[in-house]
């Protein structure tokens, strides 16, 4: 079976969507050249400068521009080069894109997609490495998806480009080169970005997303050698959150660990823990544990960088704590 | 070059409508009937009417937080705008937006905003996407917006991409509660346009005819390709928001401002040009009846219920 | 017509059971077959179901409470139907808690996980009596499950001891016979034989045939369908669920019924009809490698058949040896019911069954 990388899957999704719908356009800093990770490479040549717009370094203006184009019926895909820079576009996302449908009494819609990439990777440093999804899921009207594997990345982008409102696709720079057996490209309009079972298990449920899915799987393999069976769920959709399959899992395992790369304080894990305990309180045999990034700026030095986010060993250790 | 008398009366009618409308809102604010904050356009009618009347049906308007006048000038139903300001189900936005978030796509009014400068880049994207229609996008903002980052990013991008946007800065000398001079060493926002290579002009907002002429010329330039920056110097005859005690302005200054009342000035001009007092009074009578009817309709309108939120 | 919800006969020596959980509340509409509550006995958890459609009312008995066989736990009435007369309802003993009220143990609060608390309610385990193995001594699910299991085991050991003692008081004797199994073995293993039929099913058929064809034993049974208590090993002990076996029941049907019963017994989910009063006992330890053993009578039973393992051996016929398959059967009989000659007769019928296939029928 043919394989593709996470980056290729996203490029293919953009290509397919642009070929299918003339309203789709890309804009962002250096997108015409492919961006720093080459995700949009070749799209300018294929679809022209009228649909692949290289912008100045003006995150707020290009996001606002995209909101205006979306109001006019286009489907813009804005690339925010690093998720850290989404701070500069947050007013446009939170105050304009997310709100205009409601504020206009639903006269308007903002079918906007923001692609951005998060996470630590090769010492990118404190302002190029953050995972800021918690800020975004806090905004009603913004959808957020965080694919962890290539096939999900393809589907998530296709899905995002069919939504009536704004969607942030949070990619992970550490995943762009990851390969996966390529699944059929037939796009299923019924598909929704819900929790994906990465590994079935008996003793504990690990809920995670984005690159931490790999870390959790590595931990699960290590634990298996000690006879501990861990079930791993990759959320994929962060907002809205569909937790049904995860609830089912917890009703079987009775023990939960939530893992994300983002800083644990005020992170999405807090939301997940609260939702889980209110839905399956009587099924919990241990407190819900959260494992996330340390609440510090991400340091530059490689060993320190690795140390501030959860490792497979830390996940395994946390599973043991949950199982105590 | 003076405009035709009928057009002059139309401008007067539009300005007088805004004035009566805003006075009604002010009255309601004093009576405690209006929820939230409202920012009135009393004194700035000349800018709204002069610019909007230079646009046509292909064009789109965005505004800022002081938007009632722009929406009314565009031809929205005063009753539905009043209902929106009261938060009623019959409001243009079904009571969900309120005074600061007016939208009426039916009249080409695509949005106001509570964040200063917030709609400026939206105008760029809409203008880009609508180029094939031949329409232009006019975006109103105050001089206070010219110190935001988004203003500068947007001017840069609009000029770079030659977007058909009419930037319309209503410079009333105050950014919220603070005088222009304390906010920026650059007295006139159009100076920034020059830096970005955008043609610009300044015009006295108390002279609606001058605004109209300047806007017509500006719109023609925009249609020919590329942005234009029109700075209308207006008098803010009300506070930042209605109820603002305006302790930061002297009584003398406020009184002086009234000499720049565009409604009064245009009435006098029309009278001077031979329009009969009876004709002007008739226009005023008719507008007063229209606003009175709108006021009654809006006050009778029901509150929205929660199901409206399920729409999205 | 109001239907009384009674504690079913829960079988051998239990005399009642503990309400493990109510699945419906007073006022609930129920349909026939709806599970109303679960009763836990020494042996198993039993589901009590509604026989008719209607509204559940007059509920008595709290979760965790011990209830006697035959006690009325509530009623199913038709809409508009008055609840039954008070005198028909057993008065709940004073001090019984209201079944609708949540039960909160008094005294110092127990540190326990939510799931452990839920299991405690469901299994009738008082968490105050459980030692927690979780962090800081927290009671977790495994502690509650162990407590429930050890309580079940204790009860089961007590029941086994009681039953054994009572059974030992019965004047009884035993007799044994070696039986050649080769021909039935060939039948069971031949190609096309119904799958899932085993030695136990043949033993059931032979047992019932032997009783029917031994007049003293046939008189002792209550009805042609013999109530056979099938000894089933479960964690912590032994249970004796009951299978009603008629002489005409075919092996295929027997096998199906037997498998279901054993599965339910092992899962601790016996149905009310599974826990009647046995008249005879069948215990087959052949599968566990036992050659011969003696099964004891339980109160109310008049015969127990113990089957040893089927093994290869030698038979001598008219001086010639041949290889064959043997098993040894031991029968214990209530001496008040039958004598040695009757036991011999019974064993002869059983032997004929296995040696010639006489009386063996599939359907």
Number of helices of chain B: 11
Intertermini distance of chain A: 42 Å
Helix amount of chain B: 40-55%
CATH fold type of the largest domain in chain A: Rossmann fold
Architecture per CATH nomenclature, i.e. the level-2 architecture of chain B:
3-Layer(aba) Sandwich
CATH architecture of the largest domain in chain A: 3-Layer(aba) Sandwich
Outline the biggest β-sheet of chain B. 6 strands, parallel
Helix percentage range of chain A = 25-40%
Note the run of SSEs of chain A as H and E: EHEHEHEHHEHEHEEEEHEEHEHEHH
How would you characterize the largest beta sheet of chain A? 7 strands, mixed
Enumerate the strands of the largest sheet of chain A in spatial order, edge to edge or round the barrel: 3-2-4-5-7-6-12
Strand order of the largest sheet of chain B: 2-1-3-4-8-7
CATH superfamily of the largest domain in chain A: Thiamin diphosphate (ThDP)-binding fold, Pyr/PP domains
How much of the polypeptide of chain A forms β-strand, as a percent range?
15-25%
Spatial shape of chain B: globular
Q: In the CATH hierarchy, what is the superfamily of chain B?
A: Thiamin diphosphate (ThDP)-binding fold, Pyr/PP domains
Number of domains of chain B: 1
Helix and strand element order of chain B: HHEHHEHEHEEEHEHEHHH
Mean pLDDT of chain A: 96
Low-confidence stretches of chain B: none
> Could you give the count of β-strands of chain A?
14
Task: Outline the secondary-structure elements.
The complex is a heterotrimer of chains A (324), B (312) and C (363).
Chain A: E1 3-5, H1 6-20, E2 24-28, H2 43-47, E3 52-54, H3 59-71, E4 75-80, H4 90-97, H5 100-103, E5 113-118, H6 133-137, E6 143-145, H7 150-160, E7 167-172, E8 179-181, E9 196-199, E10 204-208, H8 212-224, E11 230-234, E12 237-239, H9 244-253, E13 256-263, H10 268-280, E14 289-293, H11 302-307, H12 312-323
Parallel strand pairs in A: 2-3, 2-4, 4-5, 5-7, 6-7, 10-11, 10-13, 13-14
Antiparallel strand pairs in A: 1-8, 6-12, 9-11
Helix pairs in contact in A: 1-7, 3-4, 8-12
Chain B: H1 5-30, H2 45-52, E1 60-62, H3 68-73, H4 78-85, E2 109-111, H5 120-129, E3 137-142, H6 149-160, E4 165-171, E5 174-175, E6 178-179, H7 190-195, E7 200-204, H8 208-224, E8 228-233, H9 251-258, H10 262-272, H11 277-300
Parallel strand pairs in B: 1-2, 1-3, 3-4, 4-8, 7-8
Antiparallel strand pairs in B: 5-6
Chain C: E1 3-6, E2 16-22, E3 29-30, E4 35-40, E5 45-49, E6 54-57, E7 66-68, E8 72-77, H1 114-123, H2 141-168, E9 172-180, H3 182-189, H4 199-212, H5 215-220, E10 226-230, E11 232-234, E12 237-239, E13 242-245, H6 251-267, E14 280-284, E15 303-307, E16 311-317, E17 320-334, H7 340-356
Parallel strand pairs in C: 10-14, 14-15
Antiparallel strand pairs in C: 1-8, 2-4, 2-7, 3-6, 4-5, 6-8, 9-17, 10-13, 11-12, 15-17, 16-17
Helix pairs in contact in C: 1-2, 4-6, 4-7
């Amino acid at each position: 079976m043919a394989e593709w990388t996470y980056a290729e899957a996203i490029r293919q999704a953009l290509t397919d969507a642009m070929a299918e719908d003339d309203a789709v356009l890309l804009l962002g800093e250096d997108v015409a050249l492919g961006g720093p990770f080459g995700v949009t490479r070749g799209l300018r040549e294929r679809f022209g400068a009228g649909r692949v717009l290289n912008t100045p370094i003006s995150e707020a203006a290009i996001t606002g521009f995209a909101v205006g184009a979306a109001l006019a019926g286009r489907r813009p895909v804005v690339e925010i080069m690093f998720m850290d820079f989404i701070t500069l576009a947050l007013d446009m996302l939170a105050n304009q894109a997310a709100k205009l449908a409601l504020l206009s009494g639903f006269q308007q819609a903002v079918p906007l997609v923001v692609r951005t990439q998060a996470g630590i990777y090769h010492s990118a440093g404190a302002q190029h490495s953050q995972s800021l999804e918690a800020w975004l899921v806090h905004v009603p009207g913004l959808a957020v998806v965080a694919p962890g594997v290539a096939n999900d990345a393809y589907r998530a982008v296709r899905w995002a480009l069919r939504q009536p409102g704004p969607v942030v696709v949070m990619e992970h720079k550490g995943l762009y080169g990851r390969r996966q057996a390529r699944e059929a490209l037939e796009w299923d309009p019924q598909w929704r970005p819900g929790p994906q079972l990465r590994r079935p298990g008996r003793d504990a449920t690990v809920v995670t997303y984005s690159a931490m899915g790999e870390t959790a799987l590595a931990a699960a393999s290590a634990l298996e050698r000690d006879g501990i069976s861990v079930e791993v769920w990759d959320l994929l959709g962060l907002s809205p959150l569909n937790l049904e399959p995860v609830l089912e899992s917890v009703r079987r395992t009775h023990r939960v660990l939530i893992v994300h790369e983002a800083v644990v304080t005020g992170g999405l894990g807090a939301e997940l823990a609260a939702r889980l305990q209110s839905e399956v309180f009587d099924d919990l045999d241990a407190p819900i544990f959260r494992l996330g990034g340390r609440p510090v700026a991400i340091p530059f030095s490689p060993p320190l960088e690795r140390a501030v986010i959860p490792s497979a060993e830390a996940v395994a250790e946390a599973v043991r704590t949950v199982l105590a | 070059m003076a405009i035709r008398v009928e057009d002059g009366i139309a401008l007067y009618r539009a300005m007088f409508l805004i004035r009566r409308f805003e006075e009604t809102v002010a009255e309601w604010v004093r009576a405690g009937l209006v929820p939230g904050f409202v920012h009135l356009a009393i004194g700035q009618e000349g800018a709204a009417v002069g610019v909007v009347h230079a646009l046509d049906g292909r064009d789109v308007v965005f505004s800022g937080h002081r938007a009632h006048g722009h929406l009314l000038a565009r031809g929205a139903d005063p009753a539905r705008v009043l209902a929106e300001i009261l938060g009623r189900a019959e409001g243009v936005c079904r009571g969900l937006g309120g005074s600061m978030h007016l939208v009426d796509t039916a009249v080409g009014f695509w949005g106001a905003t509570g964040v200063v400068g917030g709609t400026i880049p939206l105008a760029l994207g809409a203008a880009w996407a609508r180029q094939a229609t031949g329409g232009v996008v006019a975006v109103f903002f105050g001089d206070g917006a010219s110190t935001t980052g988004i203003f500068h990013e947007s001017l840069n991008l609009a000029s770079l991409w030659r977007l058909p946007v009419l930037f319309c800065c209503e410079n009333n000398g105050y950014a919220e509660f603070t005088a222009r001079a304390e906010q920026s060493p650059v007295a006139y926002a159009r100076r920034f346009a020059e830096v970005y290579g955008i043609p610009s002009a300044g015009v006295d907002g108390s002279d609606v005819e001058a605004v109209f002429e300047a806007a017509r010329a500006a719109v023609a330039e925009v249609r020919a390709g590329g942005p234009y920056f029109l700075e209308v110097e207006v008098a803010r005859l009300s506070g930042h928001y209605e109820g603002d005690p305006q302790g930061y302005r002297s009584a003398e200054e406020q009184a002086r401002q009234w000499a720049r009342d565009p409604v009064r000035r245009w009435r006098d001009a029309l009278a001077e040009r031979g329009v009969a007092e009876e004709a002007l009074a008739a226009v005023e009578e008719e507008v007063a009846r229209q606003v009175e009817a709108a006021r009654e309709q809006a006050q009778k309108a029901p509150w929205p219920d929660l199901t409206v939120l399920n729409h999205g | 017509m109001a239907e009384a919800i009674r504690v079913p006969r829960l079988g051998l020596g239990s005399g009642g059971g503990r309400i493990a959980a109510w699945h419906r509340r007073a006022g609930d509409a129920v349909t026939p077959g709806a599970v109303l509550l679960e009763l836990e006995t020494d042996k198993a958890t039993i589901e009590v179901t509604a026989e008719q459609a209607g509204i559940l009312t007059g509920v008595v008995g709290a979760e965790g409470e011990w209830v006697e066989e035959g006690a009325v736990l509530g009623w199913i009435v038709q809409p508009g139907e008055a609840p039954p007369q008070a005198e028909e309802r057993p008065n709940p003993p004073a001090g019984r808690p209201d079944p609708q009220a949540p039960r909160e143990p008094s005294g110092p609060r127990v540190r326990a996980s939510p799931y452990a608390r839920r299991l405690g309610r469901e299994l009738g385990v008082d968490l105050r009596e459980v030692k927690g193995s979780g962090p800081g001594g927290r009671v977790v699910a495994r502690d509650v499950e162990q407590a429930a299991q050890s309580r079940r085991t204790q009860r089961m050991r007590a029941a086994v001891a009681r039953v054994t003692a009572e059974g030992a008081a019965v004047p009884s004797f035993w007799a044994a016979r070696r039986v050649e199994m080769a021909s039935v073995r060939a039948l069971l293993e031949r190609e096309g034989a119904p799958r899932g039929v085993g030695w136990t099913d043949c033993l059931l058929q032979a047992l019932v045939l032997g009783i029917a064809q031994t007049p003293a034993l046939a008189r002792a049974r209550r009805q042609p369908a013999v109530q056979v208590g099938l000894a089933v090993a479960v964690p912590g002990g032994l249970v004796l669920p009951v299978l009603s076996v008629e002489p005409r029941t075919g092996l295929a049907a027997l096998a199906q019924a037997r498998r279901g019963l054993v599965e339910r017994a092992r899962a601790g989910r016996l149905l009310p009809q599974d826990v009647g009063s046995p008249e005879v006992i069948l215990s087959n330890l052949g599968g566990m490698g036992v050659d011969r053993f003696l099964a004891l009578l339980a109160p109310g039973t008049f015969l127990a058949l113990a089957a040893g393992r089927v093994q290869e051996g030698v038979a001598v016929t008219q001086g010639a040896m041949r290889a064959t398959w043997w098993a040894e059967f031991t029968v214990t009989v209530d001496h008040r019911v039958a004598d040695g000659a009757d036991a011999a007769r019974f064993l002869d019928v059983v032997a004929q069954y296995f040696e010639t296939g006489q009386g063996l029928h599939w359907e």
